[in-house]
Design brief:
Elements: H1 4-7, H2 10-24, E1 29-33, H3 40-53, E2 58-62, H4 65-77, E3 83-85, E4 98-102, H5 103-109, E5 117-120, H6 128-136, E6 141-146, E7 160-163, H7 167-172, E8 179-183, E9 194-195, E10 198-199, H8 201-209, H9 212-227, E11 233-236, H10 240-252, E12 257-259, H11 266-277, E13 285-288, E14 303-306, H12 314-324, E15 334-338, H13 342-345, H14 347-356, H15 374-380, H16 423-442, H17 448-458, H18 474-492
Parallel strand pairs: 1-6, 1-7, 2-4, 2-5, 3-4, 5-6, 8-15, 11-13, 11-14, 12-13, 14-15
Antiparallel strand pairs: 9-10
Helix pairs in contact: 8-10, 9-10, 16-17
């Protein structure tokens, strides 16, 4: 017997209660934000079971048949009666109050008699036909599930966003593991053609293939250096051709990497996933473009390789990292090898999402990001091992000490080893920036002065902060004084 209260964590129960409150406030269509690993499917099952107990009819829409089967298997595991709305499916039971349905099937049917609750998986990629269904059926309550609610236009479909838990909270509670990030040789996208603001697959493929050898060499080096040998890996590539080239080079080096793509049958992909999920599998890694970002749940994957640069897709970047952050017995962290430049490109937005969760819908995050300068890239990683050390002076991986010239550094709190900013540190940065602005106003400095001082201290732009001026604290005044002293000494030298 499925017991909802027994199955859910407190934050999941709280999220469902927030959805109920949203309905009471008149929100027919709501977005439920939860990071990868937070249990969105568990919450969806609980919502459908609550609906069934009230005598209502509900359906969960997924965008691939394989995901429908996975969800059906989960419902079976809990002994929950349901049907799969797909012609010819062995579990076609249209009379059941709980239905699992592919988006394509919904499009073909065009209607869903008696439906009262619709749950949309991966709502940040809601298909146009599904949007039309939502619009044309105002009597149906809609809940979209997503870990990345940043897609333009979501505010036209959903009127309310509910936050359940942050990635930081899941890491602290050990429901997710932190990342150890290495910034490797980057795919050069200078001057590359863009389509709708994103680098074209063809450009990324051609440029990515040029550093395939570096990807393999660095993976071999790091997997032996950190783990003592190969560990399960997933690689995110730009295209089918790029994936095939990577697999070939890995195999030439003696490692079994399997490329998978939309060209492969569902049966083949299922068999590969099942093989890879076995503890004793002889597959060292999987390579794919975006298949691994949906419905892929192999928790003992230890390494993620980012080899597909994104100009604006924060959603894809976060989805990819989430695939390797799932917890597993004896898994203390996951390794992230960045050949794409995405980690630095989206660092400010990622820090905000990591600590605070989702903001308002259509908040403008999904737009082309300015490229970090060569100096910023150089200062962000250890020159000896490539470890992302942010604003630290000592590399926590190899112990290399950074030498700073003409700059005095004041440390703030505990160093974050893994390149992720804590909630406390994020608030501290906001307060510091507000005090810089307050000081600039007192001294009649130009508006850009506070911006450049913040960037000097933290090595990044003060994005998404929108601070109000504050009187500078003594701590901030001391920091400013030290900068002035260092500046004068540099000029006198």
């Amino acid at each position: 017997m499925y017991d909802i209260e027994q199955r859910l964590f407190d934050y999941q129960k709280a999220g469902i209660e927030k959805l109920r409150e949203g309905i009471r406030l008149g929100h027919r269509s709501q977005l439920l934000y939860a990071p990868t690993g937070a249990g969105k499917t568990e919450m969806a099952i609980a919502l459908m079971e609550y609906s069934r107990q009230l005598g209502s009819r509900s359906a969960m829409i997924l965008d691939r048949i394989v995901l429908c089967n996975q969800t059906s298997d989960r419902l079976d595991k809990y002994g929950i009666d349901h049907g799969v709305m797909q012609a010819g499916h062995w579990r076609y039971r249209p009379h059941e109050r709980i239905q699992v349905c592919s988006a394509q099937t919904l499009e073909k049917r065009g209607n869903f008699p008696g439906l009262q609750l619709l749950i949309v998986d991966e709502a940040h990629q809601t298909r146009e036909k599904t949007k039309e269904f939502i619009k044309n059926n105002p009597h149906v309550k809609v809940i979209g599930l997503t870990a990345t609610p940043f897609t333009k236009g979501l505010g036209n479909v959903y009127s309310h966003v509910v936050n359940t838990v942050t990635t930081e909270q899941l890491v602290l509670s050990k429901n997710l593991v932190p990342l150890r990030v290495f910034l490797a040789k980057e795919i050069d996208m200078t001057g590359a053609k863009k389509i709708a603001g994103e680098w074209s697959d063809r450009e990324v493929t051609e440029r990515g293939i040029k550093i395939t050898g570096d990807v393999v060499t660095e993976w071999v080096k790091k997997t032996h250096e950190i783990f003592g040998g190969p560990k399960k890996t997933i690689v995110f590539c730009a295209s089918v051709a790029h994936g095939a080239d990577l697999a070939s080079k890995f195999n030439e080096a003696g490692y079994n990497f399997v490329p998978i793509s939309y060209k492969d049958s569902d049966e083949y992909k299922k068999s590969v996933f099942e093989d890879f999920a076995r503890p004793d599998t002889d597959i060292h890694g999987l390579i794919a473009v975006d298949i691994l970002t949906k419905g892929f749940d192999v928790s003992d994957v230890m390494i993620g390789v980012s080899a597909r640069p994104f100009s604006k897709s924060l959603s894809s970047h976060i989805q990819q990292m989430g695939r390797v952050m799932r917890s597993h017995p004896d898994k203390e962290f996951a390794l992230w090898l960045d050949f794409s430049g995405n980690y630095l490109r989206f660092k400010s937005d990622w820090d905000s999402v990591y600590c605070e969760g989702a903001g308002e819908l259509d908040d403008g995050r999904e737009k082309p990001k300015p490229e970090p300068t060569e100096r910023e890239k150089k200062e962000s990683k250890c020159p000896k091992c490539g470890y992302f050390w942010g604003n630290a002076d000592v590399c926590s991986h190899c112990g290399h000490v950074r030498v700073r010239k003409n700059q005095i550094l004041e440390r703030n709190g505990e160093l974050i080893e893994l390149g992720m900013t804590s909630h406390e540190e994020l608030n501290e940065r906001r307060e510091f920036y507000s005090e810089l602005i307050g000081y600039a106003q007192l001294m009649n400095y130009k508006p850009g002065w506070a911006y450049h001082q913040f960037k000097k201290k933290y090595g990044m732009e003060p994005k998404k902060m929108n601070p109000q001026p504050l009187p500078p604290s003594q701590k901030t005044l001391n920091w400013i004084k030290k900068q002035l002293i260092a500046f004068r000494k540099a000029r006198a030298a």
